[in-house]
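Many introductory courses stop at the sequence. We go one step further.
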Amino acid sequence: MKRISIWLRSFTLLQQFLAIVFLTFAILIFFVFGYLNNNVDQFVNAQMYTYLHRSQSTYISSRDDIVESSVVHLVYNKESERFLNNIPADYEEMISGIDFNSIVSTTDGYYDAASETIVYSITPFEDNYLLLSVVKSDFRTEVKAALFNGVVNVTMYVVIGVIVMIMVWVMSLIRPINQMTGYVNNIKLNQKATLEIDRKDEIGQLAESLSTMHEELTRQQSIRDEMVQNISHDLKTPIATIKSYSEAIKDHIYPYDTLEKSVDVISENADRLQRKVYSLITYNKMDYIVDKDPGVLNLEMAPLINKVILNVQVLRNDISIETDLNEKVMFHGDEEPWRVVVENLLDNALRYAETTVRITLKDNLLEVYNDGPLIEENRLDKLFKPYEMGNKGKFGLGLSIVKKVTEVYGYSVTGENMNDGVVFRIFTLNKMKKARKTRKETNNA
C-alpha cells in the first residue's frame, strides 16, 4: 500500500486520476466475474426453487399441463418404482442419482451437468406419488443473464457517474493549481503576475494567501530598497565627513576652527556611524536568541532599568525621566537582550518627548511613556515591522528588535496613543487581561 501511495505521488493530478480509474475498473471486473457471479448463481437457484414450488402447486391442483412451459413435470409412482411419463434424455443422468423411495417431504436440489446447472424440486402428493419438477436449462440461463446484466449495468452506470463527477472535481482542482503555479513562476521571473481565482474553499484561501504574500513581499522589497538608499545616504554622510576632515587635518587645515574641534567632529561622526552599524548588527543578532529556561522568572528588571537610565539620560538633559519601579518584579530571559529592549524604548521616548518620559514597572508589565506627538493611526500596526521609518526619518529597527526579544521570551509589546502622549507596553497576556478587566470594572463603577 505504501509503494502504491509513493507511486501515485510521483504522478501529476491527472495521471493520478487516470491510475485510480484504471484500478477501479480492475477491481470492478474482479468483483463482477468473481464474487458477484457466485452470488447471482445462488440467488437465481433460490428464485428457481420458489418458481418450481408455485408451478408444482398449480400442477397438483389442476392435474393437467396448463402450467409454465419452462418447467418439466414428471410423476413417479413409488409402488411401481417408475415414472408415469417419458423422461427427457437431458434428465436421465440426473434422475439416476436420486433415491426417490427415501423422499418423504419436499426436496430441492440442483445438478451440475457437463455444460449447465439443472434445478429441480421433488414434492410428495397423494399416497404413493412424487412430483419431480425441473426447470429447463435455457429458461434458467435467461433469468441469470437478465439478472446479471441488470446488476452489471446498474453498477457500471453508478461507477461511470461517480468517475465523471470525480473527473469534473479533479479538473476543477487542476485548473486553479496550474494558475497558481504560473503565478508563482511569473513572480520568480520578475514578470507581471495576476491571480484571479473566485473560490471560497481551501484552494481559494490558498490563492488569496499567495496574492497577499506577493503584495507583502513587494511592499517589503520596496521598503528594503528605500531603506538601503537611506542607510547608504546616512552612512555616506559621516564617512565623507570623517574622510574630508582627516585629509584636511593631514594638510594642517582645521575645518572647524581648531584642531581639537575638528577632531571632535570626526569623533562625533564616528560615534554616529558606530550607532547605525550597531543597530543593524543587533537586529540580525536577535534572530539567534535562544530561550534557555522557558517560564523561569530570573531577571531583576528595576536595577537594569536604572542602569540604562544612567547611560542615556545625558543624551537629553532637558527631558525629565520619571520612574515608578517595583523592585521585586522579575522578568523571564537574559539580561543583555532585555537591556537592548529598554535602551531602544527609552531612546525612542527621548527622541520624541517634549518634557517628560515616565517608566513604570509592575508585575509582568513594563510601560515607557513620553509626552511627544501622537502616532498616526495608519502607522500603529506597522510600528514593530523592520525597515519602517519614523516621524523624524529614523529607521524602525529599534522597535523591531524590541518585538523580537519580547516574542522569544513569551511577552507581547504594543504602542498606543494616550490623550497627552504615547506609551509602549510590554506585558504577558494574563497581565493584560487582568488590566483590562480592572479598567472595565472601574469604568462601570
